[in-house]
Write a structure and sequence with these properties.
Blueprint (H helix, E strand, L loop, with lengths): L29 H13 L9 H13 L3 E5 L2 H12 L6 E5 L8 H5 L3 E5 L10 H7 L4 E7 L8 H11 L3 E4 L7 E2 L2 E2 L6 E5 L12 E5 L2 H10 L24 H11 L2 H18 L6 E3 L13 E5 L7 H11 L5 E2 L10 H4 L27 H9 E4 L7 H21 L1
Parallel strand pairs: 2-3, 2-4, 4-5, 5-8
Antiparallel strand pairs: 1-9, 6-7, 8-9, 10-11, 11-13, 12-13
Helix pairs in contact: 1-8, 2-8, 3-7, 5-6, 9-13, 10-13
Length: 415
């Protein structure tokens, strides 16, 4: 049945949307300047001797619901530290998702382990308890659960199954500050949680990361890892194991402390605006916001839409093209291909020509037949991601909603 569309829909008036890549979509004021001035006045910019970083870590631990937080230089550094805490043997496997930033995959290889990709739910783009268990083997050393777009994954069920198997869970919460799964904060289900404060995240320090945990030994190992294996402040310190300098700086932590003061209000704006957008899309056929489970609370890093190509001819690609004509940016597919199709994984481009650690892998662990990843391909072929930030006002949300209605009308009319 052909969708009913209003052929008289007019093109929305152009509106410049705030961008999280510049000042229009980021929230800074004198609070950041005051804290930065205090750091510069002190002359201490290193986190090993300053005061801003310990304050940031205390506040971040409380904010994320964990006993300990370790600040580091990026979200990738946070994931690397988490994998290093797990301390896999060469050739051990870590189950993860192929719909993620490569910065959450390459740390696995750097620690000598093999990334084993689980399929995802075709409507959420995230791993499930069923898909994770299907990817687990006797060599599985850890499971990474990624919460996409600020929407919680079903990490409770995954963590319960992993606990029975004695496998630690690492939560990648880089896109999910303050999100809650069944009333409980994401990042508190696994042994370790990882966060990012990169330029486009819920709050920004330009680059930055956090590792959070309840176990003091886990937190200590993460802290030592980001400090080149050196336990600052302890008696008789020594370089304990192979590690890198992934420290943050006092300047980053100063900005973070000021940003934390307005994080909750910024998340609230994102949430209210998504409710407004959902109302605008209610009568737009073939387009819906990725569903959020009952009793979950999404915090909307960006807004992922599912586009039905049987209703919207050309699917996300065609819709993105029409939106661009109307001045609205969007990203069809989110990532252009699953991680296992990228050269570093596909061609095993690692250390020189060695292919290590892939040379230690089980053949099935590095085989990626398309039928094994039906959910992954289905999600990527149907998702269209809208930029989003805390500086959007009603006029911006309404412009996006009107542009989507007009773009769908145009796609259908052109078919």
């Amino acid at each position: 049945m052909e969708p009913e569309l209003d052929s008289n829909v007019r093109a929305p008036a152009p509106v410049r949307l705030p961008s999280d890549q510049d000042a229009t979509g980021r929230s800074f004021d004198l609070a950041e300047l005051d804290r930065l001035r205090s750091v510069l006045d002190s002359g201490v910019l290193t986190s090993t001797r300053g005061t801003q970083t310990p304050e940031y870590e205390r506040r971040a631990a409380a904010l994320t619901g964990r006993a300990h937080a370790v600040a580091c230089s990026s979200g990738t550094a946070a994931v690397h530290a988490a994998v290093a805490v797990v301390d896999p043997e060469p050739g051990d496997e870590i189950v993860t998702t192929a719909i993620t930033d490569m910065g959450a995959v390459t740390p696995i290889l750097y620690q000598g382990a093999i990334p084993v990709f689980a399929d995802v739910d075709p409507n959420s783009g995230m791993v499930t308890a069923e898909s994770v268990l299907a990817a687990v083997s006797e060599r599985t050393r850890a499971i990474i659960v990624t919460h996409l777009f600020g929407v919680p994954a079903e990490v409770d069920a995954i963590a319960a199954s992993a606990h029975e198997l004695g496998i630690p869970v690492i939560e990648d919460c880089a896109q999910a500050f303050l999100a809650r799964r069944q009333g409980r904060a994401v990042g508190t289900f696994g042994a370790i949680g990882c966060y990012s404060s990169q330029q486009g995240k819920h709050f920004t320090t330009g680059e930055g990361g956090l590792v959070v945990a309840d176990d003091a030994a886990i937190a200590r190992r993460a802290r030592v890892f980001v400090n080149k294996g050196w336990p600052y402040g302890e008696d008789s310190p020594d370089h304990e194991f192979i590690a890198l300098n992934y420290r943050t700086t006092e300047l980053q932590s100063a900005v973070a402390n000021a940003q934390l003061d307005r994080l909750e209000s910024g998340v609230g704006v994102r949430q209210r605006n998504v409710v407004r957008l959902a109302a605008a899309l209610r009568d737009v056929p073939g387009v819906e916001i990725v569903p959020v489970a009952d009793d979950d609370e999404a915090t909307w890093w960006k807004v992922p839409l599912l586009v039905d190509p049987s209703v919207v001819p050309g699917g996300p690609g065609a819709l993105a093209g029409r939106l661009a004509d109307l001045g609205i940016a969007s990203a069809p597919r989110y990532i252009q291909k699953p991680a296992f199709e990228c050269r570093v994984i596909r061609d095993q481009q690692t250390f020189g020509s060695s292919r290590w650690p892939f040379t230690l892998a089980r053949p099935d662990a590095v085989s990626y037949p398309r039928d094994r990843f039906a959910g992954t391909y289905s999600f990527l072929e149907r998702v269209l991601v809208l930029p989003w930030n805390e500086r959007y006002e009603d006029v911006h949300v309404d412009a996006v909603g009107a542009a989507l209605q007009r773009a769908v009308t145009d796609c259908v009319g052109a078919a």
